[in-house]
Amino acid sequence: MTRLILTYVGKPGCAAPGRQIDTPRPAPNNRSMARPEAVRRIKSYSAATGYVYQYFFHEVQKARRGSATGNAYIYMVSVDRKTMFPLSVLVRRDALDQWSQAHGRALTGTEEYAVAKMRLFAAFDEIEDLAASRPEFEVDGSNLDALLAALDL
């Protein structure tokens, strides 16, 4: 804790000129304020495998997997409504660059998010036991056009 030292100058003829008052400096009023938790809207998806998944979008991060770079969209997923586990969908930068060169425009952030979500849905439909395997998924040149076609883009 830092201390603030004040010197009392006083008026002429006052009894205590030059006397020091040692007063602690007040601490900031929001120093240990915790970050508020975001309210998450939990959604459901009935997969072709027969499972009903509950999920919500958690965050997006810049990521690298091997030599591939891009944005990793992380979703929190539940099969039993009791336990949640993360699933990551990497939207590869090279696939986005190839698509933008072929179509004359780049995908917007919303369109990129939609592609990641469509890949998540495809994973729900393709893999029966996601909770046990927890694989990581990618949007690359082989599946980007199909995912965008489902979105009419």
Structural description of this entry:
This protein is of the alpha+beta class. It has a domain at 62-150. The protein contains four helices and seven strands. The protein has helices spanning 93-103, 109-126, 130-133, 144-150, and strands at residues 3-7, 20-24, 43-46, 52-65, 68-78, 85-92, 137-139. The protein has a five-stranded mixed sheet. Strand 3 and strand 4 (52-65) form a beta hairpin. It is extended. The model has no long low-confidence stretch (mean pLDDT 84).
Structural class, by secondary structure, is alpha+beta
Order of helices and strands: EEEEEEHHHEH
Helix percent reads 25-40%
- Residue-averaged pLDDT: 84
Number of helices: 4
Instruction: Output the strand order for the largest sheet.
Output: 3-4-5-6-7
Count of beta strands = 7
Shape: extended
User: Largest sheet at a glance?
Assistant: 5 strands, mixed
Roughly how many Å is the radius of gyration? 28 Å
N-to-C span: 59 Å
